[in-house]
Amino acid sequence: MDTCFQAKQSVELFIPNxxxxxxxxxxxxxxIVRAIGNSGTVMPLGGELFQLKLKPINFISLxxxxxxxxxxxxxxxxxxxxxxxxxxxxxxxxxxxxxFILNLVxxxxxxxxxxxxxLQGHVHLSVQVNMPMPIALTxxxxxEGTGNTIxxxxxxxxxxxxxxxxxxxxxxxxxxxxxxxxxxxx
Length: 186
What we know:
Blueprint: E1 3-15, H1 22-25, H2 29-36, E2 42-46, E3 49-53, E4 57-59, E5 62-74, E6 80-90, E7 100-113, E8 116-129, H3 140-185
Antiparallel strand pairs: 1-8, 2-3, 3-5, 4-5, 5-6, 6-7, 7-8
């Protein structure tokens, strides 16, 4: 692969004290994925696998839409893991299927700091691609700078959705869980 784009993000979320701790919620993979994406852009594929359609991205003179299949699971230490397993990029069809590799790896883990719970995590996104002609004629520093900026923007928007949606969804889940346990007890 002749060109590599990459970006990293870290996140820390304050988690309010609730009747149900955050750890069981982190095992609700579909809810977590929907907090990262939008409900219309996430499709469960079964088990720990999900497909996420990202918003179209303008790159040089192309409009590209990444569709990422990813595995989302929680390990025994309550760490939520996200890892890409496959990717398709709509918008490259005219270039006779150029080769590319997308790699997305992330973690989100509950941490106790002074009796308060926070989720701390990070994600790394990289794409390796053989650029099709005539884009391959663009100077490499311009290509990589533009690509890295776009990758950073993708991760930044995922981070903003996570910060906006995850705590609210966790609180909704706690209410639903509490309501269900009250109904079961009665």
